[in-house]
Input
Amino acid sequence: MTTQLPMRAKLAVSVSRGVAAISRATGRGDGSVIGGRIGLAIDPGLLARLATGRQIALVSGTNGKTTTTRLSAAAIGVLGTVATNSFGANLPNGHAAALAQAGDTPYAVLEVDEHYLPHAWSATRPMVVAMLNLTRDQLDRAKEVAMLAKLWRDTVRGRPVHVVANADDPMVVWAASAAQEVTWVAAGQRWHDDSAVCPECGSAIARVIGETGDATDWRCTGCALARPQPQWWLDGDSVVDPAGERHDVKLRLPGRVNRANAAMALAVAEHFGVRACDALPRLAEITSVAGRYAMVERDGKAIRLLLAKNPAGWLEAFDMADHTPTLLSINARDPDGLDTSWLYDVDFSSLRGRRVLITGDRAYDLGVRLTVNGVAFTHVPSFGAALTALPDGRMEVIANYTAFQQIRAELNRVQ
Ligand SMILES: [Zn+2]
Output
């Protein structure tokens, strides 16, 4: 931890903190990325040094990792201060900055980009790795889902780390089952198209689909890979723990998917010695995560912002959204991925019968998709025009990455 660091690392921490503070003061974001980058430039071993002596959980997956990291940090917060990259800076720069900022606390929860799990594992030697889900994302540059599953599997294979993993995602189960110790959480999987075939043998995966659209059971038709018996699962608004005890999950974050994220967080926290009954009141205090889910009043509208970056994320957003006028905004800038053909992977038909407005750089791509899907819509040139077009009352906004950030900025950087 920071007090025992060699001189060069102390300098790196101090410069990193200073640069981050300057970056925040000048309105250039939370400063964690630039602060971490400069810290690592001064001392390339900084992340490993800052991680030494701490109990660390890494949280990774295609969707829900920022939220699950926040929930896990809140749960472990029962024990004391937790170092965490709460702004979604999930690469080594962000990890180094999060640990440098937090001082000497022994606890850390770090969100990790799914491609960087091996790097983060080597640098931080975590006590727990949480594996949420693996689905397609950013078609023009992300690795194939099966390749990511292999990367994860190789990272934890035979290693002394406790894995908390989603029993409902066959790709995650295949990766996690290489670890020595796993806690299985029935966290659900709405999107099945990236795990239609078995990562072990290539045979078809057979599923039993429940009322919620999630698979209640699955198994490979060609080998022994099958859904493990979960130790944690959801039952309506409750979560059931490994002792069979039920806990009401009262969150201010919407949807079943966030109750599943909470179940993952409780399973991570349990490994730090935190009881679910002590953690749950802290989870209930969270109203938004990096601008997501927050209800904002503007021009007579009660607006909630939902981020959806890939097909699985869109299905989850539809699950969270109320049946109310909805603005969809799509960009295809660098952070979004330039290829919008994924729009055809998403079934938008659950929006039928709702008042739907569309905007964003690639609104017309979305318009064609909605027409094919039989969803009526109106195009508006901007978020502001959508506010003018809609009557007072509730409004949902679902946007992909840069479109979300743009609208968030228009709402004065919703916290
Ligand atoms: Zn198989």
